[in-house]
């Protein structure tokens, strides 16, 4: 496979952030392990290792169906998170993202050129923040690019429809991204990443969502994209179990000095382990979230409401205690609680600068677990989960959209 002139090669180019790495890898596995396509996954070496180590729901044999490539980039600064920042946005990753956008184009161009010489078509699936990948695909004689949209389609619709008519008809209040990220990141998105310019050269978009969740929004977005000659494929969820998590990546939000960090973290972990002994489990590494959400003992999910987590919780029928932090997360929380009616807000976004006291956490958990409102939310989440799983079953909308996409790129 891969050497025949009649073959089609798919190249996935993720953005180097965990929520983005996962989505492209899950989609790549859907195409390679489940559909038998030749799929290449290209990212900086540390992020390839990270994605492979943290993917859940697939066996080792499935991973062998993908060809991984390392995109060499320069060394970059890696400052610690700023616990005093006004907005809990991971600005400490900006040096990595700037370096990636500047350096990854050349090795990706070489990879695509090599594949193009012996393939009938090269299809690039690129994270929308990797505009250079779409531009490189456009340079190929038989290249085609599709953006992979890592947030909800309703969030996309908020940008396509300036009046937000359909969103308002569904009782939703659109939250523009500029209110949820730093100015530095916005400058990166619209200048360095050039998201809007790259979209012009793409053939369409693949979205990690389904009609069971966003049917009307998908139809409206598809109509808007079709007016520009572009296709929309809603093929989610991409993925194929009450556990407490305390991991090093979170420390930057609560600790200051490094020596103090290690000491306080060790004390906190020891005390928390004692308090939860017999009733819970503490995981100190990367938590297998899919397995946790799939477990019958998991009654609810307290989440920052990233779109990956939203899709995973909804697909397993788990209600969400919504605690958004930045980016599209406040919108996802709005969608979960008001549209899906499968969650309860921990804190409204307009109060995101306030510290949430322990009593508030206790109250929202009790509301979810013992109140009539919570019971209704849990029942609704279960119904949503049933509908989402039906979407990926034989004859389901997502299954059919994925088959349409495969038929399109192998035409």
Please describe the structure with a list of short key phrases separated by commas or semicolons.
globular, 48% helix, UDP_glucos_trans, seven-stranded parallel beta sheet, UDP-glycosyltransferase activity, 411 residues, Rossmann fold, disordered N terminus, UDP_glycos_trans_CS
- The CATH topology of the largest domain corresponds to Rossmann fold
DSSP strand count: 12
Radius of gyration: 21 Å
Low-confidence residue ranges: 1-5, 241-258
Based on secondary structure, the structural category is alpha/beta
Overall form: globular
Reported CATH architecture of the largest domain: 3-Layer(aba) Sandwich
Order of helices and strands: EHEHHEHHEHEHHHHEHEEHEHEHEHEHHH
* Head-to-tail CA distance between termini: 17 Å
Mean pLDDT: 87
Instruction: Please estimate the helix content.
Output: 40-55%
Please, what is the CATH homologous superfamily of the largest domain? Glycogen Phosphorylase B
Could you give the order of strands across the largest sheet?
3-2-1-4-5-6-7
What number of domains?
2
**The CATH class of the largest domain:** Alpha Beta
Number of DSSP helical runs: 18
Largest sheet: 7 strands, parallel
- Beta-strand residue percentage: 5-15%
């Amino acid at each position: 496979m891969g050497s025949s002139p009649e073959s089609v090669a798919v190249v996935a180019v993720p953005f180097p952030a965990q929520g983005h790495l996962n989505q492209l890898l899950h989609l790549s596995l859907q195409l390679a392990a489940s559909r038998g396509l030749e799929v290449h996954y290209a990212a900086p070496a540390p992020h390839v290792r990270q994605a492979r180590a943290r993917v859940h729901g697939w066996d080792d044999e499935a991973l062998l169906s993908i060809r991984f490539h390392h995109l060499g980039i320069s060394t970059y600064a890696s400052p610690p998170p700023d616990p005093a920042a006004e907005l809990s946005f991971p600005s400490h990753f900006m040096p990595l993202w700037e370096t990636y956008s500047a350096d990854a184009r050349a090795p990706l161009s070489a990879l695509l050129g090599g594949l193009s010489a012996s393939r009938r078509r090269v299809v690039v699936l690129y994270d929308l923040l990797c505009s250079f990948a779409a531009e490189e695909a456009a340079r190929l004689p038989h290249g085609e690019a599709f953006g992979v949209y890592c947030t909800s389609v309703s969030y996309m619709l908020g940008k396509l429809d300036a009046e937000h008519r359909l969103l308002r008809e569904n009782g939703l209040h659109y939250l523009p991204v500029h209110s949820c990220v730093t100015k530095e990141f916005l400058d990166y998105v619209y200048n360095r990443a050039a998201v809007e310019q790259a979209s012009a050269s793409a053939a369409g978009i693949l979205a990690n969502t389904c009609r069971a969740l966003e049917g009307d929004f998908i139809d409206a977005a598809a109509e808007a994209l079709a007016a520009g000659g572009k296709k929309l494929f809603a093929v989610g969820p991409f993925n194929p179990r009450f556990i407490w998590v305390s991991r090093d990546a979170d420390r930057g939000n609560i600790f200051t000095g490094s020596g103090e960090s290690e000491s306080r973290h060790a004390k906190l972990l020891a005390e928390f382990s004692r308090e939860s002994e017999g009733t819970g489990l503490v995981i100190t590494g990367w938590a297998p979230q899919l397995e946790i959400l799939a477990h019958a003992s998991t009654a609810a999910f307290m989440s920052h409401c990233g779109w990956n987590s939203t899709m995973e919780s909804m697909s397993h029928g788990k209600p969400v205690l919504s605690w958004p932090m930045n980016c599209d997360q406040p919108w996802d929380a709005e969608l979960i609680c008001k549209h899906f009616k499968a969650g309860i807000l921990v804190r409204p976004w307009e109060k995101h600068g306030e510290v949430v006291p322990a009593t508030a956490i206790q109250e929202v958990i009790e509301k979810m677990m013992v109140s009539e409102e919570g019971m209704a939310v849990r029942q609704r989440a279960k119904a949503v989960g049933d509908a989402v799983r039906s979407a990926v079953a034989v004859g389901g909308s997502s299954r059919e959209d994925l088959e349409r996409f495969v038929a399109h790129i192998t035409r």
